[in-house]
Amino acid sequence: MISSSFIPLSTPAHAVSWYARVGNWQIDRNSETVNFTIEEYCHGNITGINTTPRGMMVDGIHSRYVNIDLNSVGVKQRRSALKGDIKTEEYTNASAEAEEPITRNILKLSGSPYYQFNFTELWPVHLQSERALVYSGTMINDLE
Predict the structure, then answer these.
(1) Residue-wise burial string across 90-103, b where 16 or more C-beta atoms lie within 10 A, e elsewhere
(2) Which sign does the torsion angle of CA 97, 11, 64, 86 carry?
(3) What percent of the chain has pLDDT over 70?
(4) Do 117 and 104 form a contact (C-beta atoms < 8 A)?
(5) I need a labelling partner for 142 at 20 to 30 A (CA). Which of 96, 113, 117, 135 fits?
(6) Residue 29 pLDDT exceeds 50
(7) What's the whole-number mean pLDDT along residues 92-102?
(8) Distance between CA atoms of 53 and 85, rounded to whole angstroms?
(9) DSSP state of 141
(10) Which is more confident, 22 or 125?
(11) Taking residues 105-133, what's their average pLDDT?
């Protein structure tokens, strides 16, 4: 039996995007203004379960996947565990702002085949991620 709680707290988000194109070549930029907090608690025993009256058994597994990417700053986590006891506590707080204006200038000198792209963007990101894991069992694979 595993109990898990997942508590996302979020506010509305908005995005900013722009692109520059010359012929078949282009730059695409995207950013979000987001604030969120995730608190996650999981504890219990990973076991198999009987699936038929004749006693067929299915192995138990714990699996978790996280992929957070805010303005090119992020966290990737994967975890899977087989039979055993598990306890996890995870906390993630993230905020990203895309409020500042983006300035861009495309320059092509006369007679030159080259373009010069100058762009300025200020998209600050704050990411705080904390986690604790206690596991006793057959096998665990934990990647961050």
Answers:
(1) bebebbbbbeeeee
(2) positive
(3) 86
(4) yes
(5) 96
(6) yes
(7) 82
(8) 26
(9) E
(10) 125
(11) 86
Q: Report residue 120 as tokens.
A: 């300025």
Pairing of strands 103-107, 25-46: unpaired
Contact between residue 96 and residue 83 where contact means Cβ atoms under 8 Å apart: no
| pLDDT reported for residue 123 | 79
Residues 6+ away with beta carbon under 8 Å from 76: 66, 67, 68, 143, 144
SS3 label, residue 71: coil
- 């705080």: which residue's tokens? 128
CA distance 142 to 144: 7
Could you please report the per-residue DSSP string of 74-133?
EEEEEEEE-SEEEEEEEEEEEEE---SPPEEEEE--TT-S--EEEEE----EEEEEEEEE
Q: Quote the pLDDT of residue 34.
A: 84
Contact 33, 14 (CB under 8 A): yes
Residue matched to tokens 């714990």:
62
Between 18 and 85, residue with greater pLDDT: 85
